Amino acid sequence: MDSSTILSLENISVYYGDNLILENLSLDIKDKGFLTLLGPSGCGKTTILRVMGGFVKPNSGTIKFNGKIINNIPPNKREVNTVFQRYALFPHLNVYDNIAFGLNIKKVSKNELEERVEHMFDIINLKGYEYRNVASLSGGQQQRVAIARALINKPRILLLDEPLGALDLKLRKEMQVELKRIQQSLEITFIYVTHDQEEALTMSDSVVVMRDGEILQIGTPQDIYNEPNNAFIAEFIGESNIIDGIMHEDFSVEFAGYMFECIDKGFGKLEKVDVVIRPEDIIVLPAEEANISGLVESAIFKGVHYEMIVDAHGYKWIIHSTECQEVGTEIGMGITKENIHIMKITKEEVTL
Fold it and tell me: CA-CA distance, 70 to 66, in Å (whole number)?
């Protein structure tokens, strides 16, 4: 285990009745980082969080905190706190007393309590709200109170289970920035669960992509987006054009009826592959200036770009461009070698 690892899951398996949720899952989490567990509903990401927090005991495997096994340590004895999607604030207590609740349970001195609560109000930017009823707060403000209530006990790790799910889009975006700011200012480990790709890419130092209880890829947001391991990740993380291709040799791939130079290597000669091209990486050209050309079937304004569907060589290509092309127009599509990403075809894809 790396010295920077604070929490480690080793060969964790979890069953709910006869249903296998996690099987031999292993994951090392670095101290003071922001890690996101990302995947569709039912993939097991919340179960991992509950295993870390002590709310679910694995059927097999080992949980280590700073190298020490904590499988039998109850949730209240772990240096871990959790913020759930439902904030579960105490309606009979004002904002100050909600935040101070954990310290009152621990019976810390009055001076220490006041100092730590005041610090939390600075952290969450809610100075002046101390004696308000929590029901009078907005969703974003309530979420900050829930975070402060969890942080005031000075956990080494904060677990966040889709805490922005109940907020509207504008508040969600604001809170993404706030959460990252809070994590960086306190220098503690955040482990965040979401099915929202934008949240994962916006806030995280590291992203764990999951499906069906398995980890498919771990990497930085840039790695996950630009170099997905398989077609599922490429489609789940943003939009992608995924085209059938053949690797003729290192740095040379055939797709859409033409040979293209690429930057990938290590494939077998004439190996069938998936070719991934992001919509924003396609350059709109006059039809006669590109190998690939097709007819624009639709063009929708998305705010910062137009999304066009182009019928070309048996595929419906997605293109994002700041300039709109009229429906029915024939256009060319330019693609640089750096924006052609080659992936091995999984066994699952082969059998479909």
Answer: 10
Structure tokens at 140: 């974003």
Sheet of 283-286: strands edge to edge?
Answer: 283-286, 330-334, 292-301, 306-312, 315-321
What is the C-alpha to C-alpha distance for residues 291 and 44, in angstroms, rounded to an integer?
44
Task: Indicate whether 221 pLDDT > 60.
Answer: yes
Q: Which residue type, as a one-letter code, is found at position 52?
A: M
Q: 43 pLDDT exceeds 50?
A: yes
Question: In the chain, what are the domain boundaries?
Answer: 5-226, 242-351
CA distance 75 to 155: 12
* Cβ atoms of residues 313 and 261 within 8 Å: no
Q: What is the CATH number that goes with domain 5-226?
A: 3.40.50.300
**Cα three-residue angle 71-76-78, rounded to 5 degrees:** 50
* Longest alpha-carbon distance in the chain: 78
Inter-residue contact 275 to 245 (CB < 8 Å): yes
Instruction: Count, in order, helices (H) and strands (E) of the chain.
Output: 9, 20
Strands 157-161 and 5-16, by their bridges, are unpaired
SS3 of residue 132 by DSSP: coil
- Confidence class of residue 348 from pLDDT cuts 50, 70 and 90? low
Kindly state which CATH superfamily the domain 242-351 is placed in: Nucleic acid-binding proteins (2.40.50.140)
